[in-house]
Amino acid sequence: MKKLSFHAFVALAVLVVIVIQLIGDISYSKIAPQVQYGVLNLKTWNFERDGPVTLNGKWEFNWNELRTPEMFATGKDQHYVSVPKLWNQVELNGVPLSGTGYASYRIQIFKNSSEVLLGLWMPGTFSSYNIWINGKLYIKEGVVANNAEEAVPSFRNRLIMIPAPKDKLDIVIQVANFAHYKGGISVAPEIGTVNQMTRKSKLETAKDSLIFGCLFIIGLYQFGMFMGRRKEKFTFFFGLLCIAIAVRMLTLGDVMLMYWTSWYRWTGVIRLDYCLITIAVMAGVSFVHYLFKEDTLQKYYYTLIGSGFVFLLISLTLSSLFFTSILIMYQIYIVFAVVFSIIVTVRAIQSQRTGATITLLGFIIFAVLIFNDILYYQGFAPIRDLAPFGLVVCVFIHSLMLSRRISKAMGDVESLYYELRELNAGLETRIEHRTSELVRMNESLESKNDELERMERSRRHLLSNISHDLRTPMTLIRGYLEALYDDVIVEPDEQKKYMKLMLNKVNSLNHLIEDLFELSKLEARQVNVEMVDVRLERFISHIEEQYELELRARGLLFACYNLTYRDAPPVSLNLRMDLDRMIQVFDNIIYNAVKFTPTGGKISIRFQYVISKSCIQISINDTGVGIDPEDLPYIFDRFYKRDKSRNSAVGGSGLGLSIAKEIVELHHGRIWAQSSYGQGSTFHIELPVYDL
Ligand code: ADP
């Protein structure tokens, strides 16, 4: 819908331009008579009513003669030639004329109307002329002479006011040309009332001014755009194209500012004209080339630009007579440029580039109007000189296309801006998210660090403990050995006692080393475990068998309670374990309990099922001395003993609970202790339950 309204706008604008062009060509209903053998009969013609008359037809003509009205009056040999017609197209007595030379024209108009003043519109003629009307010299355009040295070319349209006698107008025109390839009257003069002719002349000026103004402003605007965005070279070339054509209108059209300057020279202007045409063509192809960079034809583009420079050089250095004679080459150059532009634009359409279709439309309109002018000069089309307007339409369409491109780009920028803003907002929340994640990671790193520090402390502690626990018995053994060796102890009974002491120390050292070895293997998970499925009932009865008798013998009460039936489903519960190692855990806990429970105390074991965790919780309780709350968090640490003197009589290695913990964790379980000091302790073990 948006696109449709844009196209409608373009169509409307083109229509307006064409209507402006047609205003000057309003036709009157009556067909004007033609000039016949130098005579135009307008006896029944009323200019006011029937409109102006174009003076085309057969004029009296004298080649290589500059006749004055008097000479015509007495002249005998009469020749006739068609007006408008270039000398280059005329044959006189079977001999073709050349474009350069001089000649005289004459026409006699017979009329009846009673206008006081008539207007004669004389178009620019190649390349200088004099006009007499009824014997009076009215206009000298340039200098008419019979040789190239004296003749001075000049080319412009003129409006002549003539007092109109009632019955006859005798018009004599001398034309001389030594500067242009073409010579003679190429457009027929026109006669009408002063109003009609003034209007025509003003319209010509107005049309040229309009074209000049449009192109000049568009050109400046494009240059301004280019200043802002150097990257988009096509705006520069488009501006150059517009300015070149505008300047051309200024120098050659009816505005003709150049005529009002003292240094005006026709040859300079014609040189400028050819240069401007070439520059416009080069700018045009460069515009297309840079506009559709991806679709251009590099090789052809550079050929066109190269040839453009050659044409520029020719127009600037060689004589006007020469370069006007090769006008056809310039025209072929323009045709190639148009074909190049159309091909590139068609390729751009195929690649679906923005504005390609509308650009092609502009070129086609331009091409059609050029074709119209060619047809007009061949006598097939009714309206002449549409090409400049075609160009204006083309330029107009292109500037519309460019403005559309720009507004699209601006729209894109706007939506990009909003997208960026949204993205930014998203980024902020993401950053917040990331920051909180980082804070969390930092916290966890900190706690890891604390843990590492704790581990490092415990490692150092462990080392010093190991060395202490190894050195102490060693020192004792060395002392005993030295005493034996130095014969300090000589009594055989004494000697035996000391040797027994040493053997005990060695055994406990051995035990310590074994425990250490076991613990380090467990920690490194380098132990072979033989997991077997064990029914809970079987495990309970195994434990009962294991400890009952021994504990009773030590004067302690012992009981096992299976409470799993209370909470468990009526299916058998199974544990998966390395039975020997699990017994090692129980040994450790139970013998510790024995150590700290006086005779008559009680050691009991409870088995419970925790449904929510699907595990068995085993609680080993004693009624012994209990554990000091200060010691409780550390009892699973290596070498931790409640009795800080390492030679305690009740002391073991301090590794038992650490080993128990490792074994339980190897079974994916958990171990912890509870105690009320002075009332006993409870050790809890949690082991997962498996389906058989
Ligand atoms: P050890 O081999 O020296 O017994 P453990 O690692 O087995 O070392 O035990 C560490 C410490 O925990 C013991 O020295 C003791 O102080 C304390 N402990 C363990 N079990 C009990 C208990 N049932 N009653 C009181 N204290 C206990």
From TrEMBL:
Compartment list: Cell membrane
Record bears the keyword Lyase: no
Mode of membrane association: Multi-pass membrane protein
A Pfam short name: HATPase_c
Enzyme class (EC, first level): transferase
Domain Histidine kinase per the UniProt entry, residue ranges: 465-691
A biological-process GO annotation: cellular response to phosphate starvation
Primary location: membrane
Coiled coil residues, start to end: 435-465
Listed name of the protein: histidine kinase
Family annotation (InterPro entries): 7TMR_DISM_rcpt_extracell_dom1 (IPR011623), BphY/WalK/GraS-like (IPR050351), Galactose-bd-like_sf (IPR008979), HATPase_C_sf (IPR036890), HATPase_dom (IPR003594), His_kinase_dom (IPR005467), HisK_dim/P_dom (IPR003661), HisK_dim/P_sf (IPR036097)
GO (cellular component) term, any one: plasma membrane
Membrane spanning stretches: 209-227, 234-260, 266-288, 300-322, 328-346, 358-380, 386-403
Keywords assigned by UniProt, alphabetized: ATP-binding, Coiled coil, Kinase, Membrane, Nucleotide-binding, Phosphoprotein, Transferase, Transmembrane, Transmembrane helix, Two-component regulatory system
EC number: 2.7.13.3
Catalytic activity entry: ATP + protein L-histidine = ADP + protein N-phospho-L-histidine
GO molecular function, one term: ATP binding
